[in-house]
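hiii, so i know i said id send this last week but things got crazy w the move. better late than never?? heres the sequnce for the chain we talked about at the cafe, plus the structure i predicted for it. fair warning i was half asleep when i ran it
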Amino acid sequence: MQTITEIAIQKAERGVFTREQAALWVGSRNERLDGLLKRAVARGEIWRVHRGLYSVSDRYSRGRINPLELAQRIHGPSYISLESALSYHGWIPEAVHAITSVSLGRSRSFESPVGLFSFARVPQCRFLAGVRRIQEDGGSAFFLATPLKALADHVYVHQRDWHSAAPVVDSLRVDPEFLAELGGELFDEVMTAYKPGRVSRFLVGLRKELKL
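okay and structure toks below
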């Protein structure tokens, strides 16, 4: 009989699965399932990522697990933003160790064997304005903030009173050439997400400076 680890290696999509999926695989939803999962976790074959969410360990996943995709299965609705989005787009030089996301729920963080996942609450009128769905080779998919949306979220989360490009360049070390590539249509889209306040003032000031 196959172990739960062997079944997960074969059936878990990109190495990640839920308790409900495991229950269907082994035909049990009770203590037997919990025992199988507990023993596999204790042996380091399977990781418990979050409540009801598991992945095969890196010993067996062979790079199939994408933390950016996993973030939205841990806590949603959410999208990758802030430092993680800016790093993905190549806008900031620093390596980002935590996966940073924005959600409509309360701010919270989750430590897991896959890494640290941080979710910041940002109230919005249009949650996915300025957000794009990314489909990567290998099948993983996730929602990712555009650089401008990530900057706007940064201003909200860190309560920045920014009104121009200078603090973006000085504090985040963003290349001014990247800012010069922003277009007016993206500003129009992102500005619909936020109510009047420090974020809208930042976007208006930055747009005015860029003459868009």
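btw Residues 67-210 form one domain. thought thatd interest u
miss u guys!!
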